[in-house]
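Interim report to the steering committee. The following record documents the input for Biotin transporter (183 residues).
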Amino acid sequence: MERNVAQIALFAALIAALGLVPKITLAFGVPVTAQSMGVMLAGAVLGAKRGFLSMLLFVILVVIGLPLLAGGRGGLGTLMAPTAGFLIGFPFAAYVTGLFVEHVGIRPNGLRAAIGSVLGGIVVLYAFGVVGMSIGLGKSIIECLGLVTAFVPGDLLKAGITGMLVAAVAKARPQTVSWATQS
């Protein structure tokens, strides 16, 4: 149990550290950050349950006011911004990524993690993000889907990097990625 708690806290801290990478804010107010790769990594390494919990911890810390989002943002106001859907989607994106890597026996492990990252860290995260943007920007879902296409190339790159990192970790320390030795 102590190891699980430590890993959950470690990945919440990883997301915070990735927020230090300078953000690039697009014209419609949603930044390109490295934090979505942390969401992918949390799900791919920790699995569904622990990945979800690590991202839930991160979201709670942000909402109570810690400036952990890219650009030093935090507090209740983050739930009113155009980015709110992405933030709320972090735990669910990690969960779906983790669910995929735990239950789909694709080999090699890096490919499994990359595909899981696309499903959770892009498809699921965008679903939450588009709804949040629609509410925050007062635009239609279709308009917001058009806006998020700017993120697709970078997020595909992040999913690929996640796959490579997970493959390396699974090879070097297979006990860290428990699903890697299954199936």
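The mean pLDDT is 93. The committee is asked to note this result when reviewing the revised timeline.
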